[in-house]
Amino acid sequence: MDYNLPKGWMPAGTHLQYYDMGIDYKQVHEGKASGYITGEEGSNVGFATMGQTFKATKYREERVRFSGFLKTENVNNGAMLWMRVDGENGEILNFDNMENRPVKGTTNWNQYEVVLDVPESSIGIAFGMMLAGEGKAWVDSLAFEVVDKTVPVTAESIEEAIPEEPVNLTFEL
């Protein structure tokens, strides 16, 4: 499928045959245009994202924030901002896709953010907007900036997500 994305933006995802994405000149938060992703009926099995990737060199050992405004219409699984910090051998060093706080239903323009640390070993940073399932989501007024270390990161660290010992070995509550 040929998407109407501006220079620098790339489509990705699963089951992209159910998704459309591009530029919208009618639904905007600021300025003259916004980006959008539409998930057609049957798109519940996948997701689509529009994003970009750039070198991490300038941002190593910094905390960065990717923020923007999202608007949604009949979104059933979730619209999210996402950001990923990549290491030299393709490993993901940090990642947050708002999976634990997706935007669902029909909403007006609201601001969201993803904040991550960029380790010294980072080689790339990727970010974008994602739509999982059916509905339509718009994104506008994006910003990428270095923030003070007092701004909390939005992703749960691997150490926090992993329990200290095995749990629920009997499958009982």
Topology at a glance:
Blueprint: E1 10-14, E2 19-24, E3 34-39, E4 47-55, E5 62-87, E6 92-96, E7 103-118, E8 122-132, E9 135-147, H1 158-161
Short description:
With 173 residues, this protein is mainly beta. It contains one helix and nine strands; from the N terminus they run E-E-E-E-E-E-E-E-E-H.
The coarse silhouette is globular
Distance between the termini: 47 Å
> What's the β-strand tally?
9
Query: What is the succession of H and E elements?
Result: EEEEEEEEEH
Radius of gyration: 17 Å
The total of helices stands at: 1
Structural class: mainly beta
Give the percentage of residues in beta strands.
Answer: over 45%
Main sheet: strands, sense, barrel: 9 strands, antiparallel
Query: In terms of per-residue confidence, which ranges show pLDDT below 50 for 5 or more consecutive residues?
Result: none
**Kindly state the mean pLDDT as a whole number?**
91
**What percent of residues adopt helix (DSSP H or I)?**
under 10%
List keywords for this structure.
9 strands; 1 helix
Describe this structure in words.
The protein is mainly β. The protein is 2% helix and 56% strand. It has 1 helix and 9 strands; from the N terminus they run βββββββββα. Strands 1, 2, 3, 4, 5, 6, 7, 8 and 9 form a 9-stranded antiparallel β-sheet that branches. A hairpin with a 4-residue loop joins strand 5 and strand 6. The protein starts with 9 loop residues before the first strand and ends in a 12-residue tail after the last helix. The relative contact order is 0.24.
